[in-house]
Amino acid sequence: MVGVQFDKKDIVRIDKSSALPRFANVLLEQFEITLWTRYEGALSDDTTAIAYREYDLITAICLVLESAKHYYNRSFHDMRNLDVCGKIYSRMRSSRAEQNPPWELFGALHDALRFTFNAAKVSRDPADLWNGQYFWTGDSHSPEDFDWLVDYLEYIYSDDQEAAFDILVLLGVLKFFKILIACMGSSMPVHLRHAALRLAHSAREEMVSIDAIDDAMLRDMILTEFSPAILTAVCPQPGVTHSDDSPDRCVHDQRDLCYLELLFALARNSNWHPHLVEDHHIDRCISIVLKGCFGQRAFYLAGILLRIAPSEQSSVTSLNSITGQQWWDMMRDAWLHASFTTDDIHCFEFLPVLVEGAKRYMHIAAQNYIAWEVHLKFFIERVDHVVDALETRDSQQGDGEGVAVAVKELRTAASDMLEELVSSQRVVSP
Fold it and tell me: Scanning 55, 231, 325, 389, which has the fewest C-beta atoms within 10 Å of its C-beta?
């Protein structure tokens, strides 16, 4: 393709060509070879004319790939393509150091990353952010191999938000907290904030283990700056009411689950508790409870509030606004979804706490529901499902007997209460 005269507008039109489905995979292979040939080796000093031509070439390739996205199979050379981008960035930095403005290389790097994204068939739809990991990290790549991406992101995130979005998704679980905090800022567009939130969710275990960070400055920065940034990612303008179709609306299932799973993890470490309180995460959780927006959220809300309440009860007066009825509704719905979480070791370890929470509020089912018998039977049925899941887990992994015993005790307590209530009902009946 090198040296061929073309009009980029004409290339876009091949989307309607019947040849595109047949040749899409071959085109992708040739495009990758072109990228590697042009940039994988040592980059020589190019004249401005050559740099512009190569920038146009990558731009044209990206247009073709975007037109053919439904016809080719994803590339498995994503890391090699990304390495080529790193070489372009290295040359760009060298040019900056030589006070030679590398505007053409900026464009080439932008489009090379765009090509890498397209070749790997990564969706740029913000709705797909919440689904899995996109890129391999490969046996031969260490986190240090991606330092250039973090450096590049810091350089461009405020001016080129589209490229910043791409890089956030490309990086996966790499640790770059300062940039992540900036990308969750209230001035950032929603897709960038949500990409950063998803990445924070992916790195939640590292943040839970914050005690293991030897760098005191980094540890303090994460505790004091990361927590408020997480809230900004989901609620950039507190008090503002958004339309029902806004990504920043009050209730957003996938965003909320991502956010609550992150808080659920952080709540395991008491060092995070005062920050979750002071930065109004607990207030947000309480507002979700007061709205009755449970479903799958209930399990994680219960995990957050039951862990926070004992240590922060005096400083979180808003916890008192949750009625006994609302606590029970949350416990009931948490058990509705608990059987789906037992494969997660941290959810599994939380079950004894959830058992105690359910015991504490279970009596409310009989006090506040007209159809209390139906509600209690349904609750016992859900606890039974958890017992079944735990027994399956125990048979496969050989652990968890103590947790299963605690859950069975809850089932027994609920069954005994139901039997006692039914008996007393018969006594008072004429």
Answer: 325
